[in-house]
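Checklist before submission:
- one chain only
- standard amino acids only
- sequence pasted in full

Submission:
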Amino acid sequence: MRVLIAGGGIGGLTTAIALRHHGIDALVLEQAEVLSEIGAGIQIASNAAIVLRELGLEAAMQAVGVKPQSYDYRDLHTGRMLYQAPLGDEAARRYGAPMYNVHRADLVQLLFDAVPAEAKRLGARCTAISQTDDAVEVRLATGETLQADALIGCDGIHSVVRQHLRGPEQKQFANILMWRSLIPAEQLAGIDLPERGNYWFGPGRTLITYWVRPQNLYSILASVPADEVRRESWTESGDIAELLRSFEDAEPRARAMLEQIKTAFITGMYYRDPIDSWSSGRVTLLGDAAHPMVPFLAAGAGQSIEDAWTFARVLARRQDDVPGALLEYERRRLPRTTRIQAGARAVVKLMHETEAGRLRNRNARWKGLARIDPLAETSWGLAWDYNVVKATEEAPGDVVNVTGLREGKRLKRPESQRAFELWKYAFRPEDVARGHDGLREAYDRFLTTSFPLPADFEAIEGELGDVGAFRVARKEARSGNVVLHFHGGGYLIGSARGSLEYASRLATAVDGACYTVDYRLAPEHPYPAALDDAVASYRALLRRGIPASSILLSGESAGGGLAVATALALRMAGDPLPAAILAVAPFTDLTLSGDSVRAFNGDDPAANRDLLAFMGASYFQGHEPADPLVSPLFGDLAGLPPLFVTATQGEVLLSDSVRLAERAERAGVDVTLRLVEDSVHVYTIFPFLPETESTMAEVALWARRHLKAPAPHSQAAE
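Returned file contents:
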């Protein structure tokens, strides 16, 4: 078995070492004539350090690198701390290895030294590739041809191997330029720059800085909008005066650091969109050749190193079936790297906000995350909390995809699997990459296209008080019962329009009308905006003469939690309480303390711990998340109206639902708890599921017992 490796960077060299570790002959073909000291700082997180340890290289890494104690996020103008992610020994305990900051040249050199002379060739530029069923052939610029059992392209974003597989492709420009520089320690004397990730964030710009050689060499990555540098300055050596102008109002410590820069090189920030396939026959891709990503999850090199281990391990197991091994390698890696690609782009967007309101919202979200995730696991764990050495011994289907779901997860029945797949594909990589803006558009697209309003219902758009709402009903509705419904979406996404079809079935259940509310969304409108709108819409119904005894509060997911919180707020204010509350898979604990949040993380296509933390922190921001009006699970539930709670066994918010029902029952509330098997989060929005039909029939009987219908009511929301 022999493998040719095109490219002698971090990914290519690690691949050669990993292949030899598994007893496979490898030859690295690097087009550069000499190994030069290029680049600046690079971060090797725990997920990659585990591989280097397995390959016997961690000691060499320790000798040249720095172990940062934390990531410190600060405001560029004021220097105020915005967020801190603990690292050092704490990260090593959490993730299995520490993080290292190193000079890219030092890392490449130690990898280069670990590859024997006979396994690497400099000045070897690949110009043509061909393959048969039995072998692959590479032609070099010298005219020499080489044959092997497999070829792996580790040749970066401009990969020759990728072009052979896919033809010419356009790369994407992020409209951001990156200045990189290295500063000797003696020039930084007197400036307080501890061995941490010292990061500053301002409108449209960032400073990512850290030591790469212990108290010897300091790395700076400064990103700025593309229009702040003249096109003719896009050269290896940029004009430092332009860099300083971009950061002229930086706080004193950051400014003093930047003023020590003598030379810097500048590059554009480019990426490619995820692709569906990397492999063809005996040829495949690795690292930036397969999944080039923006550098804001500190993950590019780490993903290359993960790729290298996986490729070597899988090929070692399947030497008699090279094409099959390459496809298995791709199956194990593509979902994970797609997730990291999309996540990195989302972080770039987050870090480079320019509008003042969005900056405030971002910083407030970080404040909220610090309350519920003090170890920053949901911010950085998607990249770092992964042991690829262990993962390659598990089933390929255990890999987690772009929405945080294990690829191999399946449900038992065809109809439940249909609902599962609707959730699974609701959010595309591009949606995730655009942050909450993309998630909002995708969620409304998913709901409105999958669940249109039935033709025999009308939805009239208007207002309840000053809150937008739709009134959904059949013209021939016989009772005056009303459902006041709050949609789900973690307080961050979702809309009344997206819930029209479900609202039609809620209206049917009470033989009346359903008002579905467009409460304000976070992060633009944090707590208590959603609650204020919910209370206001309820009071608007009362002012219209609809008695509380004929109103059913309803909500799914976050909307279910909001329905319960609304009842608590109404009780506190002395308002008449609604007749009953329907909560489907309610999000009632924004501290994320429920057992199922961790136990079923990766099994639920609709929600995962990272997403719930992001959504919850966007909502409560600087407020206390255990406040009962934020997390009604912690409220005094005594005196609430009858409560119908339903959820699915195995979903992430199961424990929120069960604990709510148990606490309400202990408080003397009339509680109905219905748990279903082999289904999905908020299963009731999927009208084709048998469990939806039976649950809605049960809800109709339950509502009939508790609602006291007045004369029929046909007013539109106005």
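Reviewer check: DSSP finds 23 helices and 25 strands in the chain.
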